[in-house]
């Protein structure tokens, strides 16, 4: 059994910068992160072990006991940051620059009298941050949401995307919006970030070669889920896991070539653990040991 790694995978620069900032010795136990710094359980566990506190969001401001607070890599609305400042906290901003590009792009569109439309998940923390300072907006994610546009009566639309979506699906949805008879003008900026694009391209290419893909990343990680979707569309068997302990040897029986990819919030050491475990399984398989007879 052959094992191959995707050419692009794992933590992007925005995630790594956020992790580095939160792990800085200057904070120690005097830091509360407003939300999940990144969508990865191992990272959040490491932060808690260092004494860093986490609250679900700004609605839990009364639960914050530290003087210093941090905005997550997913970004936040300016009004959220202002509320924290006004409450007397020292605010550190770990927002990814590529997420803030979306904030700035949609605000620029509004200034040019475009009605703001965000393609993304309505309840995702990144999307909540993008629309948090807008007076009016629409969030769409699928064909059935397009009626919202018709009902809004808005004919001049400015469209951006959540950074972690699947490129083809966003472009297809924008094409359908452009074709609507109730829409006169569309200004679209594809704000899917380059690291997300790179990982989707890499898993697409690797899926051409393998008969099983292991996708490593948080279960609540949007970009990781999109890697699984790429595999599904290529009709390649895939398994989404968060750690090497979730690997099941039965998955690998009769497989000739296994691929490994990981989302942009997945630390390198987690990928390495998964890779090492799969190499052990591959060695056993190559030796003719069937999974039923291999102890975990």
Task: Give structural notes.
The protein has 296 residues and is an alpha/beta fold. It has 10 helices and 12 strands. It has a 4-stranded parallel sheet with strand order 1-12-10-11, sandwiched between helices. It has a 4-stranded parallel sheet with strand order 3-2-4-5, with helices on both faces. Helix 8 packs parallel to helix 9. The C terminus is likely disordered.
In short:
The chain is of the alpha/beta class. It is built from 10 helices and 12 strands. It has helices at 13-22, 41-49, 78-86, 97-111, 125-131, 146-152, 167-178, 194-207, 222-233, 268-286, and strands at 2-5, 32-34, 53-55, 68-71, 90-93, 115-119, 138-140, 156-161, 185-188, 212-216, 238-241, 257-262.
Protein traits:
single chain; 296 residues; alpha/beta; Cobalt-precorrin-4 Transmethylase, domain 1; Rossmann fold; 4-stranded parallel β-sheet; 10 helices; 12 strands; 17% strand; flat
């Amino acid at each position: 059994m052959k094992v191959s790694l995707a050419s692009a995978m794992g933590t992007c620069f925005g995630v790594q910068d956020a992790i580095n900032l939160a792990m800085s010795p200057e904070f120690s136990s005097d830091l509360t992160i407003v939300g999940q710094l990144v969508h990865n359980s191992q990272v959040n566990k490491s932060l808690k072990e260092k004494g860093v506190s986490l609250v679900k969001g700004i609605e839990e401001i009364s639960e914050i006991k530290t003087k210093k607070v941090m905005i997550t890599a997913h970004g936040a609305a300016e009004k959220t940051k202002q509320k924290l400042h006004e409450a007397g906290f020292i605010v550190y901003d770990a927002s990814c620059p590529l997420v803030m590009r979306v904030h700035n792009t949609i605000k620029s569109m509004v200034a040019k009298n475009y009605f703001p439309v965000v393609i993304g998940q309505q309840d995702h923390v990144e999307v909540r941050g993008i629309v948090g300072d807008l007076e009016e907006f629409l969030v769409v994610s699928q064909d059935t949401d397009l009626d919202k546009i018709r009902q809004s009566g808005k004919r001049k639309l400015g469209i951006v995307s959540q950074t972690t979506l699947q490129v083809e699906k966003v472009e297809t949805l924008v094409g359908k919006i452009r074709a609507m008879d109730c829409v006169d003008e569309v200004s679209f900026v594809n704000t899917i970030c380059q690291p997300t694009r790179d990982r989707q391209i890499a898993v697409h290419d690797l899926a051409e070669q393998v008969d099983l893909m292991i996708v490593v990343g948080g279960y609540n990680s949007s970009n990781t889920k999109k890697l699984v979707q790429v595999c599904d569309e290529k009709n390649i068997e895939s398994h989404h896991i968060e750690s090497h302990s979730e690997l099941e040897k039965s998955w690998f029986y009769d497989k000739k070539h296994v691929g490994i990819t990981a989302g942009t919030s997945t630390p390198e050491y987690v990928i390495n653990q998964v890779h090492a475990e799969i190499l052990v399984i591959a060695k056993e398989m190559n030796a003719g040991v069937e999974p039923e007879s291999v102890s975990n």
